[in-house]
Amino acid sequence: MRVRAYRFRAYCSKTTTRVLKTQLEVACKLYNTLLHAEQEEYEENKRTMSRNELRQLALDLRKQNKEFQVLYSQVAQQVADRFYEARQRFFDGLANKPREKKPHRYLSLVYSQKGWKLSNWREVGQGKNKKKKARLYLSKIGFFTLVIHREFPLERVSQVCVKLYPSGRIYVIFLVEEPEAEEQQSEKPKNAVGVDLGITRLATLSDGRYLENPRPLERSLERIRLLQRRLSRKKFLSNNWIKAKRRLAKQYEHVKNLRRDLFFKLGVLLSQKYDVLVLEDLNVQGLIQKGVTKTRRMRLYDSSFSELRAVLEWEFRKREKLVLPVPAYNSSRECFLCGGINKGLTLEDRVFLCPHCGFILDRDLNASLVLLKRAGWVPPDAPVELRPIPPLPSLGLRGQGVAMIQEAPAFRRGSSHG
Ligand SMILES: [Zn+2]
């Protein structure tokens, strides 16, 4: 089974928002209490608690402590699950040791099958803007109005997550379990595409096409830099600082939404034409090392790379096509033609010039061809021509794809330049 998330914007009264905030604080406290209990247990008995023990402990704490009773019982259990999973990731060497959580970092509550109800479905809007609204009741919190901009299999929902974003917006996320598409083995895939992800150019394909950061995205990034400067001039934790901080958070979310939208469109474009997608395999270690030295602006890109990869993978897997990650080591310095390494290549060089065989090609295009070669595909003999992908909405995808409209988040409206 694989889990799929459907995220919808949620609106509620000020009172409900307050209740939600209180519950998030309480859930955070419960999380930290469990963490301390686990530490004590380990110091005294040199053992760790199982998932069920942690769940039971969460329920016991809830019974004994009035404060924890504001949480719905399954939500309290889920706090235990969250801690358990954080600890497992640490045991598996995938994450740092779980630490005490800070209240302002604890932003979501999860309901499982019980404790929530959707009702009062109605259609709103005309024509293209037609969508549904529904009322969600979360036990012990209250009512939310959801804007349901795409269909989702309500009967297969396994968890409902309510999340308060730093901008103050609230989203509700439905997790749906879907049977995994079986890997296809027998039929030999026909055509493959290598994709090099970059900063100046978002993506360069081995067929010569490339995708630049679209203008609205660039504008939003500029605005983020402006807002960051403004924030730095405000007095820390003053009212104006808090206001500026929220404005910045809104802009970040706007950029995130723009990107997601773009990523899904690119995913559809590629997966419709190609059977195999070859990407560089960024290992976690590499990402961490990059993170240390890079500026804030770059880090913003780092996180979007992993999202772009996830979206592309998702689009390919959905169509039962293949995604091949290949080692990224030196991929931009290797000559696609002779395999020699251009040691002198710097980040500023936009053109790759091979010191061994004299081959000249656009830097990113060379890198995407190297990736393709590493995955065992033979790239075309004739040199491909470098050309931009036209702005994605004009590709006719909108008309063609219920699928695409479903994938693209439609909650950007009204969020611009917030
Ligand atoms: Zn060469």
Tell me which ligands are bound: zinc ion
Terminal Cα separation, in Å?
Answer: 38 Å
> Beta-strand level of the residues, as a percent range?
15-25%
Oligomer: single chain
Backbone CA Rg:
24 Å
What class would the helix/strand composition place it in?
A: alpha+beta
Shape from CA axes?
Answer: globular
| Count of spatially separate domains | 2
Query: What is the count of helical runs?
Result: 10
**What order do the helices and strands follow?**
EHHHEEEEEEEEEHHEHHEEEHEHH
In which order are the strands of the major sheet placed?
2-6-7-1-5-4-3
Percent helix, as a range, is: 40-55%
Beta strand count: 15
Biggest sheet statistics: 7 strands, antiparallel
Which stretches are poorly predicted, pLDDT < 50 over at least 5 residues? 284-300, 394-418
Mean pLDDT: 82
Explain what the structure shows.
Strand 8 (192-197) and strand 9 form a beta hairpin. The strands form 3 sheets. Strands 2-6-7-1-5-4-3 form a 7-stranded antiparallel beta sheet. A 6-stranded mixed beta sheet has the order 12-11-8-9-10-15, sandwiched between helices. A two-stranded antiparallel sheet has the order 13-14. By secondary structure, it is an alpha+beta fold. The protein is built from 10 helices and 15 strands. It folds into 2 domains: 1-180, no CATH class; 192-407, no CATH class. It binds zinc ion.
